[in-house]
Amino acid sequence: MARNMQQGGRSAPRNAAEAPVVEALSAEDAAGLENFDRIIAKDSRVEPRDWMPEAYRRSLVRQISQHAHSEIIGMQPEANWITRAPSLKRKSILMAKVQDEAGHGLYLYSAAETLGTTRDDMMDALVAGKARYSSIFNYPTVTWADMGAIGWMVDGAAICNQVPLCRASYGPYGRAMVRVCKEESFHQRQGFEILLELANGTPEQRAMAQDAVNRWYAPSLMMFGPPDDDSPNSKQSMAWNIKRFSNDELRSRFVGMLAEQVKVLGLELPDDQVRFDADTKKWEYGPLDWEEFKEVLAGRGPCNAQRLERRRSAHEDGAWVREAAAAYAEKQAAQHTAANAQKAAA
Amino acid sequence: MGDKEAMESPTPEPTEGAHRWPLWEVFVRSSRGLSHVHAGSLHAPDASMALRNARDLYTRRNEGVSIWVVPSDAIAASDPDSKGSFFESPQGKDYRHATYYTKSEGVKHL
């Protein structure tokens, strides 16, 4: 979105973020807040130039940029297998998928930019190790079957999470998610197909598929975030119609899908506590290791350093391309201006 | 720029801060006979790169037969708060809609 389309002249005063909002409102802000509350109450959409509470803006910038970073970092575990894909077909599919992840990152960065943050700030925060991204991408992809498990479970969890986000109250975020979700379903299906073929292959292939499912199961369940009673931002996010369902609700729904789909694969989930509770109408599952989740999120997962280093070097190695393109554009623009001046003089 | 200060500003200076690519809005015509529709935005150093990037970013699945790219800052936009004054009030202008004319109900092909 164009800057002039993004920023109303009446964005909230900077200090509104720190000061207790309720008391420090100017008449203008009070009117803005009233309008914002009305939009949220009607379940309508907030657009970039609308007045919005600073906390809402910050919360969105955090969520959308983390989401974008996850897509960008998420390219790495799969790119790892492009050169070793078992067939040309699988290689083409994997390349298309990794390219999609890059695209998803870009849609999301654009959405975050409409909130007034810059692409460079977000990129810098990521390579400086200051930004968070989904902890799942800090796990290694050790066998080809991991490409299957990632597509089926990791992308499956992402879809579960993202479909309700298509209705997020912030317009540009919702629109980006619609685009992402459309493309994501191919990701999940291709992963499922990889596992299905391995599961129906040799005993070794079957074992490889089961091993991948075993390793990716818990981390994919943790993708929904901490349990509801330990998720400080969730409540506010739901009140603002950004999130539509709680972490635990979505997780339980996802487990239900896996429990059915795994039967088609003829594999097993590494969790003997998965069951449907007829009273609560919810899927139950075994305990998850939230200490591990926190460790990985804090940067102490198996691949955190490697992922960041790869991102950083890609960013730095690409600097000359960006500089050259900018220099070329500048030169072309100068020639264009000179030619116009000559024409005008003649 | 919005609430740049509100975000934690990262310490290392961006290596290519001087080469920030401008923002472009992308419009895609999904098939012949339809108008170009806003698809999203992207950064690119110039128009031809913006077109190529737009092709890669917004038409990976044959979503378009034609693309426009427009520098974002070339777009003039109406003020979102001027709903009342800028956009004509629909109140009292019902007669601009076919549904206003009820006496002809039941008359065929009208």
In short:
The complex is a heterodimer of chains A (346) and B (110). By secondary structure, chain A is mostly helical.
How would you describe this structure to a colleague?
The complex is a heterodimer of chains A (346) and B (110). Chain A has 346 residues and is mainly α. Chain A has 14 helices and 2 strands; from the N terminus they run H-H-H-H-H-H-H-H-H-H-H-E-E-H-H-H. In chain A, 40% of the residues are buried. With 110 residues, chain B is α+β, with helices and mostly antiparallel strands. Chain B contains 2 helices and 3 strands. Chain B has helices spanning 47-58, 83-86; strands spanning 23-29, 37-43, 66-71. A 3-stranded antiparallel beta sheet of chain B has the order 2-1-3, covered by helices on one side. The longest helix of chain B has 12 residues, at 47-58. The radius of gyration of chain B is 22 Å and the shape is elongated. The chains are: A mainly alpha (346), B alpha+beta (110). Chains A and B meet through helix 1, helix 3, helix 5, helix 6 and helix 8 of A and strand 2 and helix 1 of B.
